[in-house]
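Quick illustration, no need to memorize.
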Amino acid sequence: MSVSDERDVKAPEGGREAARQAALEKIARSRDVAQERQLLGAWTLFYKEILRFWTIAGQTVISPVITMMLYFLVFGYSLGDRLQEIRGVPYVDFLVPGLVMLALITNSYINSAFSLFITKVHGTIVDLLVTPLTYVQFLGAYVAAAVVRAMLIGSIIWIVAWLMGASPFYSVPVALIFMALTSMAFAFIGVVVAILGEDFDHINLLPNFLITPLTFLGGVFYSIEMLPAPWDTVSLFNPVLYMVNGVRYGMVGVSDVPVWQGAVMLLVLNAIFGGVALWLLKTGKKLRD
């Protein structure tokens, strides 16, 4: 074969390789564009959820703050004069973490549960599920919005309590970590209940008969050392106790239970309920009926 013939053979091969590289680059750019659009869609859904509760902030933010401040005034100052201190901490300071968690747990659950359930009742959930968003992005948007609302309310209560004379700033990072993990856990639970629930009674069932009792019995207003046997031991099986005491350690430096146990438990709960919520979304159970 002559030199000119070899050049003729190599030329098409070089052209095919260039075309192949160009095609691969085009595919990569298309994937990048698709990912950017997915992220934009997830951000838009998250922003929509933020606007949903922020446009009625008087009901969704201010109202729970006022309720917790009434608890603070009634219990903090009326009982505070009698109890004085619990575990060496002024009762007013001891009470703040419990009130923060009481509002945090309730509002993180309510935000994700009611928002998702309403979209399911109205039938708009189907429109969201056919978007290019991944199930992780879809779930993340709802959970993140619930966490923002809960953290906002909890932080406002924390600051207002400080302005009213409390000093709950022992370890702010620890308190914020426990607040965020707790908000996420109950936001995941809210998503699960919203998917499985068939009417608003089902949505209200969990907070009325489980979340609120567990929260009030989880050391919000007292230390379990104040309980008689066997109730002090029974309280150790209440998961909310570990959440409340994790935040209490971050705010005032005392805890009825080891802080690391609360952190591990929250990570496990987030993994379990996050996994269940994701599985329910992927299977479409009770969403596309």
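The chain has a mean pLDDT of 87.
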